[in-house]
Automatic annotation (TrEMBL):
Family: Belongs to the peptidase A1 family.
Keyword Protease: yes
Alphabetical list of PANTHER family matching this protein: BETA-SITE APP-CLEAVING ENZYME, ISOFORM A-RELATED (PTHR47966:SF51)
Domain of life: Eukaryota
Keyword vocabulary terms for this entry: Aspartyl protease, Disulfide bond, Hydrolase, Protease
Paired cysteines (S-S): 89-122
One example GO MF annotation: aspartic-type endopeptidase activity
A Pfam family matched in the record: Asp
A biological process term (GO) from this entry: proteolysis
PROSITE patterns in the record: PEPTIDASE_A1
Protein name: Peptidase A1 domain-containing protein
Chain ranges of the Peptidase A1 domain: 1-160
Protein species of origin: Blepharisma stoltei
Length: 162
């Protein structure tokens, strides 16, 4: 079904699955507060911003946070990372969740959502952001949720996929 200039919530999910978030339109980006990002048991980059970017393929984050996450993968999951961020390991291991707390609401991405197997390597679908203290949430994040943008009310509606 294609609906232009509107939406029918009943087509997506039960009402209890709706999460409304207020966003700012900063420099043409839909921007939220990123309270924290948790990978496994470690928290990264509290007090930063998160930009929703349907035109970006990966999740991009602050250099220190992404470097820390890659080190956690390498240290705790018997992986070795080369300079391209390839992980020489089994993609099916029980990797930790990537959890984004945005404006007080948690959004979880399982390892199958952020690791992509190519040949014998796992490639993380996240990388470094060049925007200071900002996470760029691209398709790796967005494909896990239905996302509706309401420009008139300056809010955003996420509906968790079932």
């Amino acid at each position: 079904m294609l609906i232009i200039d509107g939406y029918d919530i009943s087509k997506y999910a039960a009402e209890s699955q709706f999460t409304f978030l207020n966003v700012a339109n900063s420099d043409g980006f839909w921007e939220l507060d990123s309270d924290c990002v948790v990978f496994g048991q470690k928290s990264f980059a509290g007090g930063s911003k998160a930009r929703i970017s349907p035109g970006t393929s990966y999740i991009l984050g602050p250099i220190d946070a992404i470097s820390g996450i890659l080190k956690l993968l390498e240290a705790n999951y018997t992986c070795s990372a080369d300079n391209l961020g390839q992980l020489n390991c089994n993609c099916n291991e029980n990797y930790p969740d990537f959890v984004f707390q945005l404006s007080g609401v948690q959004f979880k991405i399982k390892s199958a959502g952020y690791l992509q197997k190519v040949d014998e390597y796992c490639h993380p679908t996240f990388g470094y952001s060049t925007v200071t203290n900002t996470w760029i949430l691209g398709d790796t994040f967005l494909r896990r949720f239905y996302t509706l943008y309401d420009k008139a009310k300056r809010s955003q509606l996420y509906i968790k996929l079932c």
